[in-house]
Amino acid sequence: MKLIILENAQQIAEQVSEIFIEQVNAKKNSVLGFATGASPVPTYELLVKAYEQGKLSLKDITTFNLDEYCGIPASCEQSYRTFMFENLFGKTDVDPEKVNFLNGNAADFAAECREYEGKIAAAGGIDIQLLGVGVNGHIGFNEPSDKITDIPFAVELTDSTKQANSRYFEDGKVPDYALTMGIGDIMRAKKIVLIATGDSKKNAVKAIRDGEISSQCPATFLRLHPDAVVFADKAAAALL
Ligand code: F6R
């Protein structure tokens, strides 16, 4: 794992968007794993800009999002599907037929998760998985726990995560459950890029570099990946 500390979120976005642009320009039908939340937004803005300037086409990529809430309509403002269309897919030529999300309203979560796993495998695996990190060290919605997860699964969100994400919900009420890729899915990506920005991520970044590798801090598993790059801004790297 490589750790790169830059001045601010914009500098990180410049480098991360370049990684994605190079990947797609080298392999038009790349399989890309995307994250939602605040961390990737500046990167998505730069990918949209590259598309508008004719430097990037995403029309042949296949996408897999990391996670989705359970029990809210896919079309509502807070769903991760809506987020991706508002921030990236709807502003570029991503083919809506080639985007994949876990269905948080599936009747049978276990079957939904197995099917998602099958689709990732059938696509040939993920070329680059983009990640943010939770203040508690979660990646995707792999919350601190005593088990390592492999394939997608349904998870009960922790109070820490609900608190952090309540800003996106008008009534502050975050769903109790989500579906998420497992640690195994993330680790099977050929390359992983994690973005950590802001003071609230400083404990997570310290743990990623120095903490015990443990399911109690899922982001620490990145140290075992042969091609993982963690980008932290000065604030997130304050404890290093
Ligand atoms: C989102 C996801 C989460 C976020 C994490 C950080 O798809 O998988 O793990 O990356 O909660 O969120 P932000 O970037 O909003 O601080």
Task: Describe it.
There is one protein chain. With 240 residues, the chain is an alpha/beta fold. 31% of the residues lie in helices and 18% in strands. It has seven helices and ten strands. It has helices spanning 9-26, 41-52, 80-87, 109-122, 159-165, 183-188, 202-210; strands at residues 2-6, 31-34, 62-65, 67-69, 99-100, 128-131, 153-156, 177-180, 191-196, 228-233. The strands form two sheets. Strands 1-10-9-6-2-3-5 form a seven-stranded parallel sheet, sandwiched between helices. Strands 4-8-7 form a three-stranded antiparallel sheet, with helices on one face. The longest helix is centred in the N-terminal third of the chain and has 18 residues, at 9-26. The protein is globular and about 40 Å long. The two termini are 15 Å apart. The model has no long low-confidence stretch (mean pLDDT 97). Fructose -6-phosphate (F6R) binds at residues 35-39, 66-67, 80, 132-134, 138-140.
C-alpha-based Rg, rounded: 17 Å
- Overall mean pLDDT score? 97
* Ligands, deduplicated: fructose -6-phosphate
Parts with pLDDT < 50 across at least 5 consecutive residues: none
Summing up helix and strand content along with how strands pair, one would put the structural category as alpha/beta
The spatial strand order of the largest sheet comes to: 1-10-9-6-2-3-5
Question: Distance between termini?
Answer: 15 Å
Strand content: 15-25%
**Share of residues in helices:** 25-40%
The number of helical elements comes to 7
Spatial shape: globular
Taking the sheet with the most strands, its summary is: 7 strands, parallel
Number of strands: 10
